Amino acid sequence: MSCRILGIVGSPRHKSSTEVLVNQALEAARVTGDIETEIITLAGKRVLPCIGCYKCVEKKSLCIFKDKDCLGEIYEKWLQADGIIIGSPVYHLSITGVLKNVLDRLGEGIWSLRATSAIDSGWFGKVGGVITQGMATFGGQEYTAQYLVNHLLLMNCLVVPAEFLTVPGVVGSFKGNRVYEPGKIAEYDETAVKNARIMGKRVAEITKIVKVGTKQLKEQLPAEYSSYVLTKEGAEKILAIGKNGK
Ligand SMILES: Cc1cc2nc3c(=O)[nH]c(=O)nc-3n(C[C@H](O)[C@H](O)[C@H](O)COP(=O)(O)O)c2cc1C
User: Fold this and answer.
1) Which of 106, 129, 131, 201 has the greatest CB tally within 10 Å of its CB?
2) Once rounded to an integer, what is the mean pLDDT over residues 102-113?
3) How many CA atoms lie within 13 A of 87 on its CB side?
4) Largest distance between two CA atoms of the chain
5) Best substitution site from 135, 173, 179 to test ligand 1's pocket, by max atoms within 8 Å of Cβ?
6) How many CA atoms lie within 13 A of 129 on its CB side?
7) Which of ligand 1's atoms lies nearest the C-alpha of 136?
């Protein structure tokens, strides 16, 4: 049974170090077999912020501005993915602004469908892992990673830790590097690359376990598990609501 894993890169820079780590994670996921991967990088993209209009709630739809920028594509790929690997460089002790804009509208759009009962269940059961890296030692990697873990939990994802002795659920560089050039991380932090690969492998393996397990246990599980948990049909149903705005 093939699984889809989506990587989201929150750096606004092309060929960023975050992209290097997310790509490493995705490659390691593919090595486990039967995994398709896709990557969305926010580099060079302008993403509108959520303006709090609550039209998504009023219209029981995904963000009504989703076709004005890349949010439409992000909803589609997010909903179709079985596993998510999300990475951000540390910006001012947190995630980047452009990624925050994505997560606000992604989260609020999906939440509006749950809150208005436009979908029967908000239990998606996607598996997720997070990656971060920054310029300074203790530069805010833990806050950033925690933010992303909280985001995954809020989206009802199952957060996968990388390895014992890394910050729970987190991989990335904690090395003070003073390297301003994008994409150099592999040259100064082999451990970050290694941990990103472990993360990708684990996310792939746990995604398969959840997907196969949900199918196998279908008769024993509450109905909500078969509506949207890692099914292509579940994603399509939700995207159709988004398209019609009803
Ligand atoms: C606006 C801005 C804020 C930043 N804030 C932090 C910070 O709080 N802590 C830190 O360690 N690095 C900070 N950095 C440095 C980046 O996290 C670092 O250069 C990172 O390696 C960039 O990753 P990328 O190549 O994926 O874009 C900041 C950089 C920028 C541009």
Assistant:
1) 129
2) 94
3) 36
4) 55
5) 135
6) 34
7) 11
